[in-house]
Amino acid sequence: MRQWIRLAAVIPLMAAVVTPAVSYPLLVPPLVLAGLGSALFFAPLASAMLSAVAFEEQGQASGAAMAIRELAAVFGVAVLGLVFAGHGGYASRPDFVSGFVPAMWLAAGVAAAGVLAAAALPAGSRAADGVVCCRTRRRSAPGAFAVRACPR
What we know:
152 residues, two-stranded antiparallel ribbon
């Protein structure tokens, strides 16, 4: 949960510090935090999604998760680009900031809504319920593994 909050907190920080006179080195810390937040977000998210489904369904879950992530990126870029273009542009530094700041505030609102939605999810998982996946050798195929649920 902390990584989600960190990622969501960086976006309003960017919107608050950007002015036409801001230097690039001032933007490096928020950009680094955003990169770290993304790195700390996607690996546990994939793990949580795959642990929430049966072993036989993990391929489908992985494919669905990737498709949803790609669609979210496409819609995010499109919507934020529209907000940016509607409020500013690339003609000058003040024009750029006029579009960038509202786009970042919208992104911050969406990120905050995501954190609240994630916090509202039930906390239970198969691993937390005392069931983990165990790999056992099958007799039918040499070197093949079967995955079954077993108590800790």
